[in-house]
Amino acid sequence: MASTLEVAPWQVENTVRMMEEGDTVPFISRYRKERTGGLDDALIATIKHLTGVFGELEKRKSTVLETIESLGKLTDALKAEIENCVDPARLEDLYLPYRPKRRTRATVARENGLEPLADAMFDFKLNDPAAEAHKYLGDKLASVEDALAGARDIIAERISETAEIRDAMRLIFSRCRVVSKPARGAADKPEAAKYRSYFNFSMPVQRIPAHNLLAILRAQGEGLLSVSIDADPEKCCSKIYYEISHGKRYPSPALQSQIKEAVADCYERLLEPSISGETLREAKRKADTESIEVFGENLRQLLLSSPVGQKRTLAIDPGFRNGCKLAALDAHGNLLHHSIIYPHPPRNEKVRALMEVQDILEKYEIQAVAIGNGTAARETEEFMRKVQLPEGCKVWTVSEDGASIYSASEIAREEFPDEDVTVRGAVSIGRRLMDPLSELVKIDPKSLGIGQYQHDVDQSLLKEKLDSVVESCVNSVGVDVNIASPSLLRYVAGIGPVLADNIVAWRTSHGGFASRKDLMDVPRLGPAAFKQSAGFLRINGASNPLDSSAVHPESYHIAEKMASSLGVPVSSLVGNKELCSKLKARDFVEKDFGLPTVNDIISELQSPGRDPRQEASEFEFASDIHEIEDLHPGMELPGIVTNITNFGAFVDIGLHENGLIHVSRMGRGRGADPSKILKLHQQIKVQVEDIDVERRRIALRLLS
Asked: What is d(CA 84, CA 333) in angstroms, rounded to the nearest whole number?
């Protein structure tokens, strides 16, 4: 694990030990830097994942050892090799000769007593196989060819179960190409049209992009493509023959012919299907990992999108025929009022809509307007330009992705049992503007429109990654325990769904938490959960100012020593950068609290409860672009990045269709990583390169 992650073994050992003691990833990365050497939460999450992977490998080793030992074939050398194995594929190769298997052609040959003949042939110890085979004829074997065929079956199976040969084949196949062609009768099927670019596709296994491989394998699963690895059978058979003949005496022509026939049969019938499948599975595993990483990074950027903060907000879910749904929210996101206006065709009730919006803006002292970016979004933005906004009030466009999923969810029904899905959807849009993180945690990340082939990748690995990202984001920002929803609280380190509900129930019945110590009164929130969660839960307005900071209660005494050394109370030190600058971290290092922790405490005292997210900034689409037909090559437009993949980025330029900046059009050369060039929801400038009106596709180039 240390080698894989390029860290020191002691860092991994300490991290695993803390996890075994019940410490969470956020807690370890934030409050145990001395013990990890400053590993970040992503690396610690990876260690957690690998611990599970190698834990399963150890269980598998135990099963393998028990099985081989029960057969009486476990040698000291084999046992040592299995115990030291860290590669699952290698482990299965070692186990293959001993693994219980279904009845095979080789099994039948052994039952017919042909194993001695196969041994003699395989060891190159006879010159005339036919003459030797004649000795085995009897009731079960009528001819010499039957005996030789049985011996070849045993040899073929033995070759296919040899770990070194399987390794050699893996190496050859890994250097070959993935080839895809239309499956029989699939080329003319309408559903195959979207895979037409893969009808005669070929690319090296080690270089095929993740999105290409996942698309090909999806089409194969739908019966539309035939996928293979173009390994050269002659080259592979030559390699196999060399491996089994190396170091043995030169065979007679007759024996060589029999061995080569067994090798060819082994390759075609046993090795090629097995290694080809393994190669594709391994390539898919890497593609899954790459795609999941992209998805995770997109989710991180989305969750950490800039909030406008606690502002009284008018949320608008735009529409034509069904009207624009309005929801007025207070600064905490509570619903104050909802209604529907029809400023667009076919009803065109612009005057009435204008009066309705103006009345809501004034009555509820609205400070921000959030407009969903779906159907009629541009028209609604133009309509809002005719409205007299209160001083300081701005209009923002908000992504609607997943709003409909939330509005029909159990969480939404619990929050708004008396409202229909349209009202819930509008509320979600408004809350996303105020605090994207708090609202988006209520929605399955796979519904947020930011993934790449998300339904084709390993679903358990995807869930693990996305849960880890959500947990990381929530804890990096921190949570106001007196206003946070159960959906947000559940991702706080050490909390989970049950304690989240208990926290909300306690604050409801007691009027809120006055200090972090009050958390210990929550049912089932014991010392262990308090230790993990306390530093990430904020009590704004608490009598102890440290309760609203990221300083952990276990370190309060250090902050108090710092204040005492300056002759001031803690309350005077918190937020006072001038006083904090006088502190020397080394003066406060203790046995269990080293320099990294002390530096973090000083940093937090300077800016308590600092939000790592940037402030939201305004954005406007080009005013003269409404339909794809309005575009022409060379046009320069403002846009917002809506999704990032490993082949490029999708950009909203104010139309129903997003444009695509291919990775080759990002100005960073071949092989550039889009996620290192652009960020989700980043405001950029693009140039239109090509428009395919029929297929509704827009090709863009990144300008800035």
From this structure: 56
pLDDT of res. 147:
96
Element (H, E) at 510: helix 496-510
**Residues 498, 407 share a domain:** no
With beta carbons less than 8 A apart as the criterion, state whether 426 and 315 touch: yes
Query: Torsions phi, psi of 369, nearest 5?
Result: -120, 130
Between the CA of residue 230 and those of 173, 176, 201, 276, 313, what are the distances in Å? Answer: 8, 6, 12, 9, 60
Is 387 in the same domain as 424?
yes
The answer as to whether 133 is a domain residue is no
Tell the burial category of 554 from Cβ atoms under 10 Å away from its Cβ (0-12, 13-18, 19+): middle
**CATH number of the domain that residue 593 is part of:** 1.10.150.310
Q: Please report whether residue 226 resides in a domain.
A: no
Task: Write down the pTM of the prediction.
Answer: 0.85
Residues 121-164: tens digit of each pLDDT: 999 999 999 999 999 998 889 999 999 999 999 999 999 999 99
The structure tokens listed for 698 are 């827009």
* Number of folded domains that form the chain: 4
Shared domain for 430 and 511, answered yes or no, is no
Phi-psi region of 123 (alpha: psi -120 to 50; beta: other; left: phi over 0): alpha
Tell me the DSSP string of 314-360: EEEE--STT-EEEEEE-TTS-EEEEEEE--STTT--HHHHHHHHHHH
Condensed to tens digits (0 to 9), the pLDDT of residues 547-599 reads 999 999 999 999 999 999 999 999 999 999 999 999 999 999 998 899 999 99
Per-residue pLDDT at 671 exceeds 60: no
Q: Place 241 in a pLDDT band, splitting at 50, 70 and 90.
A: very high
Q: Is a pLDDT exceeding 60 seen at residue 6?
A: yes
User: Quick count: other Cβ atoms within 10 Å of Cβ 566?
Assistant: 14
The boundaries of the domain holding residue 348 are 313-434
- Average pLDDT of the chain, as a whole number: 93
